[in-house]
Amino acid sequence: MNIIVSGAVHIGKTTVCKKVIGMAQNTGLSCGGIITLKAPGAALSVVDIQTGKMATLAIPGDKYGGPLVPRFTFDPAGVDFGMQAIERGSSSDILLIDEIGIIEMKGEGFIRAFDYVNNKTAKINLLIVREHLLDYFIPMFFEKPLVYNITAQNRDNIASDIHFIIQEYIACQ
User: Fold this and answer.
1) Does residue 61 sit within a domain?
2) Which regions of 23-145 does DSSP assign to beta strands (E)?
3) Which of 26, 80, 155, 170 has its CA 20 to 30 A from that of 72?
4) What is the pTM of this model?
5) What is the pLDDT of residues 119-165, one digit of tens each?
6) CA atoms within 13 A on the CB side of 120
7) Residue 129: inside a domain, yes or no?
């Protein structure tokens, strides 16, 4: 099963997915993949869900000579760290990939994560995709995803809804 969590910038997509992962772990499900977080100095970090280890993913400007999007340059070592975490997490009950965006539209970043998603190595693939990029990424799924749009009105309760769907799906396997 593929689930996309979408919504506007800064609406709380990562927070919702962190809650879903916490609920899943509390019910005995294995979880892997990555979460991206803001780091000091406006940088972005990538966290391996299984190990808790963290690496710099991107910083403002053009320092690394890696993939460049309007506000950031991506550290190739951070992208590699994230892909390794995705690969390790691909055999989990839930594989979280936070987030698929502009860099993947260029064929860079975590674009290879779709290999794991489409090969169905995890029972549930949970991806964060910005709402304005949905039309681009949904056709990349071999199996149509469920899409949850996070809003200010639903963000406090939607993690429970997503977790319920995951529990129902796992129970039917």
Assistant:
1) no
2) 31-38, 44-48, 54-60, 72-74, 94-100, 124-129
3) 155
4) 0.92
5) 988 999 999 998 899 999 999 999 999 999 999 999 999 999 999 99
6) 6
7) yes
